[in-house]
Design a protein that fits this description.
The protein is built from six helices and no strands. It has 112 residues and is an all-alpha fold. The protein has two domains: 78 residues, Helix Hairpins (Orthogonal Bundle), CATH 1.10.287.1080; 32 residues, no CATH class. It starts with a helix and ends in a 10-residue tail after the last helix. 4% of the residues are buried. The structure holds magnesium ion. Magnesium ion (MG) binds next to helix 2 and helix 4.
Length: 112
């Protein structure tokens, strides 16, 4: 079994033991993911990146894990293959951000 499937099985078991799938519609999963991303952002608020990373490493790991868990639940809801959708999106990103145009630039693709 691959590691992605192990994670999906772990979080699915956690959810099913609590009978929480009934609450996991796509809208609420997307909102929860966004809220967890905001909690991650809050750790960095009013600090330099270094300050946040030095003093809140465990909190960052926890909030990042929350974001990923909801992302995995959402992918499962749509029966997306996580490896496949990441590969597909990276192909699209490569077209949007060709190395020869994007290297060393933090510019959005439509302004390259
Ligand atoms: Mg959280």
């Amino acid at each position: 079994m691959n590691e992605i499937q192990e994670i999906i099985d772990l979080i699915t078991a956690f959810r099913d033991e609590r009978n929480w799938e009934q609450f996991h519609n796509a809208k609420d999963l997307a909102i929860a993911l966004s809220i967890e991303a905001a909690e991650l952002n809050e750790i960095f608020l009013w600090k330099t990146p270094d300050q946040a990373m030095e003093s809140n490493r465990e909190d960052i790991a926890d909030e990042l894990a929350d974001v990923l868990v909801y992302a995995f639940y959402l992918a499962k809801k749509f029966n997306f293959d996580i490896k496949e959708i990441i590969h597909q999106k990276m192909k699209k990103n490569a077209l949007k951000y060709p190395v020869e145009k994007a290297r060393n630039l933090a510019t959005k693709y439509n302004q390259l």
